[in-house]
Recover the amino acids of this structure.
């Protein structure tokens, strides 16, 4: 995967400032800042329960009933904020300016509708094709682009006649149908067989590059982020704890959590008893994270000062970390 | 798909055949002598013998069964033991009346249950949804004949808007027909819609939680559009199931409602025949009702295949 | 849906609220059922008047301190009839549900544990029996055996067998998949012992729920049958026949329809709510499924 730098454009595709997601008085995502430039591929990593999927849904305005978002989410060429927008406004943005690929391909498609019609519908809703016929033939083209065999035949089949990998390709085709400026992928390959993961991943990246679209890639798989993304944000306990270029974050992590995460994914790191490294403890339940530094109850470096929320250290939201006891900048490898 | 339809049709035919044997066996074997039953204990032995001769009740049972079922299949069921009139035309008349009643009730129930159930599902956490939910629970507990009596008390006795009972064929006097149909059909529909509403609610609630509905919204459909275009068809499967099951409840309800409103339908015919100990008539009416229920089950199976493509291929 | 969403969904909130609502149905249902049972038991030891005593001097009295619910066209006390009527209702319900359970439960368990073809056969017979609703079967029985409470109870019971058999079969099939059944089989227990010692206790909650729901169906069927004049013969008071007798009096005394009508609705509502509440108490996952 080439990591060419995105050409600097006047407007960012996505500007998130102070995004919060809460249910009742429990905060699930807290004060999240994020900017994505045109054509940029950004990874959002974290363990399950860290709030990354909720962040994705909040960006789409698709939070489940009962969950509320605060802060601001601005999308290029959309003249209103996503947070607080009504369904009429959101429906014009979704699938047109921002599109999303979900984790579970087995249930993401309507079982009673032919897949071609489901792809074509995305274009008909936003009027990007003049007629049903045009949309249908465009849908067949899209199915071909995502590498499905016999595109016209596939278009006429129902989801249950396709395999999981094939269904996920359909979902990708559907998401790319209107050439969105930003594609959000929420663990798009996690539910797939290992053998097809790489194929689907490759095809998503190709689709995004061909369209000059930006991508927010959510995963817990560090290796995938390393191959696909240029920049990465590390999320824990509903907060961004570290951000920066992939190369920098993965080789010189500053936050203790990032450090632990990297160690845990590295099969060559063993402790003195020969066991693989893990991040000690488990992710607390949503809303049950400690006050101050959310990681302090699992952190070997935690001290009393960690009871206060660590400030962001770094030039801006896209490069820095929030830790009272960061790994030294020179320390290479894994603590 | 064609194969599945054939299998289903085969099951329908087999069910009809088996239930006809059951009905015949039950009515013809257990009570002893149908001629004696028809004429009563005080009838002379000679009269009983004559009736037995006349209707061939002294022949082997198999022969009697074949003649009975043959008569029904060819729409020529012969004569009543008691009134000695042709059963065929009478049955046809009564079926039409009951069909009007049950059909109207079913359609009204659906027209009420679909939107109300949908509202209950979409607002399932709000007071309006919960109130409707509680109301439907009460509605389920009110039998059709009770609803009928209360409706008569309200609209016929107290307000005097509608006739309390009676039946007029639509060709004779359409206005009177409608007037007399309103209360009995409403009585039946009230209970049905209460039951259906609850199923529509849970079916739509189920669908609202589905991932593909979120995908539909992610495409740019508004929530209501997503529900209508992607949800309703999927929610239809459980609702259609219930619709099929409810037909038998509806038919039974009609039997009682016809008595309440003095309507000359199948139910009245059945009850009169029971009182008159006209076993052949009872047998025929029961058979018509059972075939209606079985046919509805078949129709539901066919509807499944149309609604859900997953059922068309492969094993069950 | 991503794995983490369910964790953070506000299950605590809605679940509690929903359970609260459901607990209400359990509570209200139990209260209504208790009311009917207390009425029935009370009628054995005390009724304000003789429910079958015809008293022309006291015809069509309005509700008063003497006659709480008034009197009918024969001067019989309506309240006393309602009390004794609950006895009839409960009696019919118990016997009908008993018949259905005693036949339906073993049938369900056996059809699940027996070879596949046998299970299929039982289920086909079940479907067939479903084509004969309780009231139709009861009318057929009446045509053949004449009308009596016993005939009504047995007919309603037989018509309710499929409800039990179907549910218990699917419950048993689930239990049979569990590890401890495998363990019991591995340790050489016979099918009879497994059915009795392991399956039956595990489907008992299903049986209780189905019994409650079936009771409501039996109450409805008995009321309809008595209303048609085929159920409990006079002079034994029965809610259905009281309702039928009230119909000709709608013009002069519509209140006569209200009391037995309300009694029927209370009993049916009670058993339905109790069944719903128990279902959720035993298995919250089954909410909204029927």
């Amino acid at each position: 995967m080439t990591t060419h730098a995105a050409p600097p454009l006047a407007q960012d595709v996505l500007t998130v400032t102070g995004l919060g997601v809460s249910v009742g008085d429990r905060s699930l995502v807290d004060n999240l800042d994020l900017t994505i430039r045109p054509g940029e591929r950004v990874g959002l990593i974290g363990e399950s329960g860290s709030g990354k999927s909720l962040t994705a849904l909040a960006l789409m305005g698709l939070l489940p009933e009962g969950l509320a978002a605060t802060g601001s989410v601005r999308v290029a060429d959309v003249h209103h904020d996503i947070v607080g927008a009504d369904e009429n406004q959101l429906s014009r943005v979704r699938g047109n300016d921002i599109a999303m690929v979900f984790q579970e391909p087995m249930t993401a498609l309507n079982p009673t509708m032919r897949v071609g019609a489901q792809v074509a519908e995305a274009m008909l809703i936003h009027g990007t094709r003049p007629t049903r016929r045009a949309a249908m033939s465009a849908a067949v083209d899209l199915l071909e682009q995502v590498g499905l065999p016999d595109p016209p035949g596939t278009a006429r089949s129902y989801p249950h006649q396709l395999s999981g990998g094939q269904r996920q390709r359909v979902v990708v085709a559907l998401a790319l149908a209107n050439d969105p400026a930003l594609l959000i992928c929420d663990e798009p390959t996690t539910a797939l067989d290992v053998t097809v993961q790489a194929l689907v991943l490759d095809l998503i990246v190709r689709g995004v590059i061909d369209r000059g679209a930006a991508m927010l890639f959510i995963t817990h798989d560090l290796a995938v982020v390393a191959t696909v993304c240029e920049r990465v944000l590390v999320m824990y306990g509903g907060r961004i704890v570290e951000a920066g270029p992939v190369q920098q974050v993965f080789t010189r992590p500053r936050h203790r959590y990032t450090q632990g995460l990297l160690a845990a994914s590295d099969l060559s790191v063993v402790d003195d008893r020969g066991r693989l490294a893990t991040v000690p403890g488990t992710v607390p339940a949503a809303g049950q994270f400690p006050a101050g530094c959310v990681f302090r109850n699992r952190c070997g470096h935690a001290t009393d000062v960690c009871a206060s929320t660590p400030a962001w250290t770094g030039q801006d939201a896209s490069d820095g970390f929030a830790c009272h006891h960061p790994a030294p900048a020179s320390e290479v490898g894994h603590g | 798909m064609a194969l599945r339809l054939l299998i289903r049709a085969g099951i329908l035919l087999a069910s009809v055949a088996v239930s006809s044997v059951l009905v015949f066996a039950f009515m013809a074997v257990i009570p002893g002598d149908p001629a004696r039953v028809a004429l009563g204990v005080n009838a002379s032995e000679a009269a009983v013998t004559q009736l037995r001769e006349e209707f061939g009740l002294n022949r082997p049972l198999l022969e009697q069964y074949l003649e009975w079922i043959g008569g029904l299949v060819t729409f020529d069921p012969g004569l009543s033991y008691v009134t000695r009139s042709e059963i065929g035309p009478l049955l046809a008349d009564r079926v039409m009346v009951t069909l009007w009643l049950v059909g109207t009730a079913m359609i009204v129930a659906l027209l009420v249950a679909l939107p109300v159930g949908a509202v209950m599902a979409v607002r399932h956490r709000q007071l309006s949804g919960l109130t409707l939910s509680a109301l439907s629970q009460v509605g389920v507990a009110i039998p059709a004949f009770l609803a009928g009596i209360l409706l008569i008390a309200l609209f016929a006795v107290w307000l005097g808007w509608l006739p309390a009972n009676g039946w007029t064929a639509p060709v004779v006097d359409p206005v009177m027909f409608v007037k007399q149909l309103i209360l009995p059909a409403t009585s039946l529909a009230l209970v049905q819609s209460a039951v259906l509403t609850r199923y529509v609610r849970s079916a739509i609630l189920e669908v609202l939680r589905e991932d593909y509905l979120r995908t539909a919204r992610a495409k740019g459909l508004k929530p209501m559009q997503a529900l209508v275009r992607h949800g309703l068809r999927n929610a239809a499967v459980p609702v259609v199931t219930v619709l099929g099951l409810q037909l038998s409840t509806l038919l039974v309800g009609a039997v009682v409602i016809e008595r309440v409103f003095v309507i000359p339908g199948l139910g009245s015919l059945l009850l009169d025949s029971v009182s008159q100990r006209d076993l052949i008539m009872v047998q025929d009416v029961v058979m018509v009702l059972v075939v209606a229920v079985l046919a509805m089950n078949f129709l539901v199976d066919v509807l499944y295949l149309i609604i859900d493509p997953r059922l068309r291929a492969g094993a069950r | 849906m991503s794995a983490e969403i369910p964790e953070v969904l506000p299950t605590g909130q809605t679940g509690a609220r929903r359970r609260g609502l459901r607990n209400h149905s359990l509570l209200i249902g139990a209260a209504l059922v208790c009311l009917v049972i207390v009425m029935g038991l009370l009628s054995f030891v005390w009724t304000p008047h003789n429910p079958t005593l015809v008293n022309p001097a006291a015809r069509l009295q309005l509700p008063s301190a003497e006659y709480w619910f008034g009197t009918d066209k024969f001067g019989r006390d309506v309240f006393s009839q309602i009390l004794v009527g609950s006895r009839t209702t409960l009696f019919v319900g118990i016997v009908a549900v008993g018949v259905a359970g005693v036949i339906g439960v073993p049938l369900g368990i056996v059809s699940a544990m027996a070879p596949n073809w046998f299970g299929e056969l039982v289920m086909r017979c079940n479907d067939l029996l479903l084509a004969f609703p309780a009231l139709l079967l009861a009318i057929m029985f009446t045509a053949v055996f004449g009308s009596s409470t016993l005939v009504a109870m047995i007919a309603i019971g037989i018509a309710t067998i499929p409800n039990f058999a179907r549910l218990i079969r699917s419950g048993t099939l689930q239990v049979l998949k569990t590890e401890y059944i495998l363990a019991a089989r591995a340790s050489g227990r016979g099918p009879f012992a497994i059915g009795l010692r392991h399956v039956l206790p595990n489907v008992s909650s299903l049986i209780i729920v189905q019994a409650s729901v079936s009771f409501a169906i039996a109450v409805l069927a008995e009321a309809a049958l008595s209303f048609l004049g085929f159920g409990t013969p006079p002079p034994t008071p029965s809610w259905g026949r009281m309702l039928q007798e009230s119909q000709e009096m709608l013009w002069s005394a519509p209140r006569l329809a209200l009391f037995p009508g309300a009694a029927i609705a209370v009993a049916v509502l009670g058993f339905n709510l109790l069944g719903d509440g128990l279902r959720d108490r035993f298995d919250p996952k089954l909410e909204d499924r029927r």
